[in-house]
Amino acid sequence: MAIGRQVGLLTGLAESGCDLSGADLVVGTSAGALVGAFLARGADLSGALRSLARMAQAMSADQLAEGSQVLLAAMAQAGQGPEALRSIGRLAVQHHTLLDEASFLGLVTDLVGLAWPTTFRCTATAIDTGEVVVWTADSAVELHPAVAAGCAAPVLFAPVTIGGRRYLDGGVLSHVNARAAADAERMVVPSCFPLDQPPAAFQTVQQEIAELRAADVALLTVEPSPEVFTLGAGGPAMMNPALAEQAYTLGRAQAGIERGRTAA
Length: 264
What we know:
This protein has helices at 2-15, 31-40, 46-58, 61-78, 82-94, 101-105, 143-151, 204-214, 234-238, 244-263, and strands at 26-28, 120-126, 132-135, 160-162, 165-169, 186-190, 218-222. 48% of the residues are buried. The longest helix is centred in the C-terminal third of the chain and has 20 residues, at 244-263. The strands form two sheets. Strands 1, 2, 3, 4 and 5 form a five-stranded mixed beta sheet that branches. It has a two-stranded parallel sheet with strand order 6-7. By secondary structure, it is of the alpha/beta class.
């Protein structure tokens, strides 16, 4: 659902004359890593939807919901900081995942062999250190495995191996990672969750946004419309590909409301 809503929002904004593919910088985190890679290339965002369709074929909504519940509970209990990320990394390695590494990489084959967009940054979490890494075109990492690693939600998908190290989702503790664009003067931050009442696992996001605003970054957050949450309750619904089409429609409709603020 998160991917569908993001694609709908960005498509609607582009259609209304506010095409964010021309941004100087695109930071991708979790679902946004996949969408952001296509956006930064100025490419048709339907590639992200094709990956979502493959996910729907590979696993059931019930499996995704169950795995998401386990993950969100672990994130809420882990606390914050590198040790929390290492703890979740251990869970990612020990827990039986719905897809192994090769199968998960197969979900994002549209990115195989594509050049890294110069404006794109992808976040991921290194399991061994708990460090959130930010890859760029200068990082000597291929786009396909980097984006897969950035989307590899623990418990649901196996970590991705790059350069002998294993990585998982960059959005484990922050689903926006706006700090990865701290050098920007203006920033549009699409969020999968309401920022005034984020899930327990993402309590630091409010602090992250506040710090950037205090540093005089002109920052606009675009939170989901209330209608998005009528599709399903909480975090597990965000991983449900069966809701992608409805989320896309709602995201596209929201673009008409957000266009003025975003363009400004």
